[in-house]
Design goal:
The protein has nine helices and seven strands; from the N terminus they run αααααβαβαβββααββ. It is α+β, with helices and mostly antiparallel strands and 238 residues long. It has one domain. A three-stranded antiparallel beta sheet has the order 2-4-5, with no helix packed on it. Strands 1-3 form a two-stranded antiparallel sheet. A two-stranded antiparallel ribbon has the order 6-7. Strand 4 and strand 5 form a beta hairpin. Helix 1 packs parallel to helix 5 and helix 5 crosses helix 7. The chain is globular.
Length: 238
């Protein structure tokens, strides 16, 4: 499942791929952040006021070269981690240049917030809440190791958002709650094998041998694939 901002998966929107770490991607990140700093939204303004050093760095056009140079010695996985750290912020800021082609989906660890964003509050007929998890990520440590600026808080901290890379994979869904009946349906794959530490890191074992066949029946232009370590996109063109 992809989020509302993931229009790139069902529209032919231009943008870099989910695993792209070329310099042009980081150049765009700097530009997008600089544009976001000029945003007049009160919460966005408050965010940058709380992260003054971060704001100063990305306001200075000369730091674009500094930003790119700091990444030169990183391997591809670490570059991807740094890229995602800043893209998560752009996703949360609903950055004008990124909000419709985001590589992320918003979730929350606050139940009331999940219910509020889960559909019509009066008519809960179609409202469902996904219960899921994601492994602990360490992007911020790599950013700091590079000497790049880190942000201290998220723009909408009261929402307690957890921003998930790619989409919500079925391997990481523990169950679905139907709001109207308050019924909870656990992921049946939980009962197919032993739950171990690796389950929480790499997800449940699920047979998806017919995934591509089903995907071609949908309106999605591309899908997200993962082997538990790397993530990439596939076209669903018939």
């Amino acid at each position: 499942m992809v989020g509302e901002k993931g229009k790139r998966y069902y529209n032919e929107l231009e943008g870099f791929t989910i695993n792209d770490t070329d310099d042009i991607v980081f150049t765009k990140i700097v530009d997008y952040l600089k544009d976001s700093i000029r945003n007049k939204n009160s919460r966005v303004i408050a965010f940058f006021e709380k992260n003054e050093d971060f704001r100063k760095f990305f306001s200075n056009s000369q730091n674009k070269t500094t930003f790119i140079k700091a990444l030169e010695t990183l391997n591809t996985n670490d570059k991807l981690a740094v890229r995602n750290y800043y893209l998560i912020l752009l996703h949360q800021l609903s950055a004008i240049n990124y909000k419709d082609k985001s590589h992320f989906v918003s979730t929350t660890k606050d139940y009331k917030t999940a219910k509020r964003f889960g559909g019509n509050q009066r008519d809960k007929t179609d409202q469902v809440i996904l219960h899921c998890w994601q492994p602990i990520l360490h992007e911020k440590q790599i950013v700091l190791k590079c000497g790049l600026p880190a942000y201290k808080t998220s723009p909408y901290s009261y929402q307690k958002e957890i921003t998930i890379f790619g989409g919500i994979f079925p391997h990481f869904i523990s169950g679905i709650e139907v709001a109207k009946t308050k019924s909870f349906y656990p992921n049946p794959n939980i009962f197919n094998g032993k739950i171990t530490k690796d389950t929480f890191l790499y997800g449940l074992n699920i047979d998806q041998s017919n995934f591509e066949v089903i995907a071609k029946l949908t309106n999605y232009k591309k899908t997200i694939i993962t082997d538990g370590k790397d993530t990439w996109e596939n076209s669903t063109k018939r």
